[in-house]
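Chapter review: from sequence to fold.
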Amino acid sequence: MPLEIGHLSDLQFMIPMNARRILEIGCGDGTLGASIKARIPNSFYIGLEEDKDLALVAQTRLNKVFDKSIEHDEQFEALLKLADQDPFDAILIGVSAEFLFSQSGLLSRLIKLVCAKGVCVGYLKDIRNWEILKQKVAENSNIEHLALMDQAEVERLAQETVLQSFTGAGWTVLESKPLIVSKIQATEAVNLAEMHNQGKSPSAEGVVQNGSALGWVVSASNGAPDTPIYIAALAIQKVAGVNEARVDYPLTALKSLPNVKAVWGQGSLTIPKDFKPGVLILHRQFLNSLAVARHIERLIDAGWVIVSEIDDDPGHWRGYVDSNFIAFRGVHAVSVSTQRLAARMRSLNPNTKVFENAIFELPKISKKPTMKEGRLRIFFGALNRMADWSEIKAGLIPALSELRNEIEFIVVHDKDIYNDLPEFVRKEFYPTLPPADYLEVLSSCDLSLLPLRDTPFNHLKSDLKLIESCACGVVPIFSEVVYADTPNAANLGVMMRQRENWGDALIELVRNPQRIADFRNSGLTYVTTQRMHSHSLGHRLEWLQGLIANKGRLEEERRERLRSMGLSSLEVHESKG
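The token string follows.
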């Protein structure tokens, strides 16, 4: 029974993003598997699908597809043989509740296929409690029984039996929740119940919550998971993909792990009451406010480890400079995006860790039809790059004139650069886009221009624009500044010194389609094997766990740095600063 991807976007995030081997029971046409593999491209993904037509499509998306059910002994034995050699890390199963209950040994079979602490995520369909309730009303059930059709009976019917099926097979249930699809139908059922109960339904809200479920999603593990780790993060308001790259994506990856509890917000943050002290990440926060400083000190006293996250030169902002970089000196550790930036930050806090920017999910590379003349699409999309553009413009304009019938420009973010392009250039402009839309536009292009001047500020930037181009199948022409630090950069595109003639490089590339194809393949290989968030997940978790284990020593070092600044805590900084 294939899973309906439109209803199950959250289900994907319950699969650990460090899973190497994944099995999906009832994979349909492989849509869900393809989406998961876009985040974990190096995973080996096996699907089972009885519908031979769907299985044929799935074979184009997954690593291996069997067109038999796991109910067949020979199919199970084949999977068991594979698991004996290398167990699965995760299993996905989407079946009707009726099927699960009738196949009492199914979950017991599945647990034999996963590694210790491997997970099973089950989507149990056809638990439509609003329909049950309507049926009871139609049957004129007695008022007392009808009144109980809220949390008590709904959970007993739709949840307890499901959970018992998992625990009875040896699984440790991690999470269970209703998959809410249509509250309109559930509200209709509640109204019927209230009519028969004179408006005294004890928990109409419970009926809506549970009765509107299309099904239940259950996550379970083969044995108890590792000790939970709690992570919270406060980011600045979203701007041009900065938050996503440094907060949203890495924490979403971490949260996919069974032992990680994570929450984050932009501009404000509420830490759930059931969270135990863990790691609080502060993304681009100055910590120069007395109220904020006092709150951070209270969290430290409660046992939290505080990390400052920065991915640009902190000297660019007066808030950091005027406070003598208290945001980095006055916390336990710092995370950054490049080795160059780490070298700068370690003079402020030696507990600095590098996590390179990475790709969360490979975009679907479906090239839009270019102009009828077969023009190549050239992408330019970055913030505040007018000065960088100006240095390459002189050599580029003659080339644009020569190529006027072969190319078109796509500009994102910077209207000044769009306006600065000659009128004879075919061009299209997009305002600042959220990351998913940004990558969609980028993936419709063929080449990208990534100029960076030789300035101290630019040298502390990351290569995110380069790896985004590679992930989208776009061949970059890029500056030696910053991008030369990327391993094997010369195999990913054309590397230029800033004052070299970028126009000549553009002409040569446009007229050499084989070279474009070679660069595109190299770029995709580099990203899918080295620069995904799934690649750094284990290292990030290990670092965070180490911070918690060593918080006593880290706190002593933090207080010593504050004393060297003439401060006893963050709280007194504002009055002295």
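Two observations follow directly from the output. The chain has a mean pLDDT of 85. The chain has three domains: 5-221, 232-358+538-576, 376-530.
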